[in-house]
Amino acid sequence: MAVNIVLLGPPGAGKGTQAKRLEQLYGMVQLSTGDMLRAAVAAETQVGLRAKAVMDAGNLVDDEILIAMIADRLEQPDAKRGAIFDGFPRTVPQAEALDRLLAHRGSRLHQVIEMRVDDDALVARIAGRFTCKSCGAGFHDAFKPTKQAGICDACGGREFIRRADDNAATVKKRLTEYYAKTAPILPYYRARGALKTVNGMADMDAVTTAIAEILGPPPAESTH
Ligand code: ADP
Ligand code: ADP
Ligand code: ZN
Prior knowledge:
The protein is an alpha/beta fold. It has helices spanning about 15-25, 35-45, 45-55, 65-75, 90-105, 120-125, 170-180, 185-190, 205-215, and strands at about 5-10, 30, 85, 110-115, 130, 140, 160, 195-200. Helix 2 packs across helix 3 and helix 6 (about 120-125) crosses helix 7 (about 170-180). The protein is globular. It binds adenosine-5'-diphosphate (2 copies) and zinc ion. The site of one adenosine-5'-diphosphate (ADP) has 18 residues, from helix 2 and helix 3.
C-alpha cells in the first residue's frame, strides 16, 4: 500500500536531506515544492515568472499556485508509489487542500513528521548549503562536505549550486513566514493524531533512524 507522509519543518531543518534518504529506503517519491518552483523559475514558465520575486524575498508563493502544482504532480504515475511531501503544505489552506486531493484519489495522509531545529542551527545550515548541479545531491560546507573537494560524492559532477534565497536577510524572512504561516498547521495535524516530532538537531543518520522508527520497517519489495 502506498504511504504518504509530510516532512514539516523550518527552512534548513533537513527535510530535503531526509526525503532523499526515505525515497531510497521506502520507495516513495519526494515531492519538493521548492524544487518544482525553482525548476519553473529556471524554465521561465508563467508560474516561474510570478514566483521568482516572491521567493527571492523569502515570502510564500500563493496557495492557489502551489495547490494546482501539487494536484498536477499527483496525477503522474510515480505518485502512486506514495509521496514524501517536502515543503508542502506550508499553510492551513494548503493542508486542507492536500487532504481533499488525496481523498479524491482514494488515498490519505498517513503520517506528518515535524523536524524541530533551533533557529541558530537553521541559519548555520542554510549559510553552508550547496547542491550538485547534475544530480541534486545535497551538501554542507561544514556538516557534509564532499569527500573529495569539488567533486560530487554521488555522481562525480564538478558543478554546484547555491540558492539565491540562502542569504542572511532572506533566511530571517523565511523563518518569520514559517512561524507565522506554517507552524499553525501543527495543531491541525496534532488534533487528529497524525503528528510525530523528531529532534532535527541530531546528526543526519540519527534523524533518519528516528523517522524510520515512526514509519516502521520498509516493505521488502520497495527497498532498493
Ligand atoms: P531543508 O530541505 O529542510 O531546507 P536541507 O535538507 O536542505 O533542509 O538541509 C539544510 C542544510 O543542512 C544542508 O546543507 C544539509 O546538508 C545540512 N543538514 C541537513 N540535516 C542535517 C543534520 N541533521 N545535521 C547537520 N546538517 C544537516
Ligand atoms: P527550504 O528548503 O529552505 O525549506 P524550499 O525549497 O522548500 O525551502 O522553498 C523555497 C521557497 O519556495 C520558499 O521560501 C517559498 O518562497 C517557496 N515555496 C516552496 N514551497 C512552498 C509552499 N508550499 N507554499 C508557498 N511557497 C512555497
Ligand atoms: Zn552529483
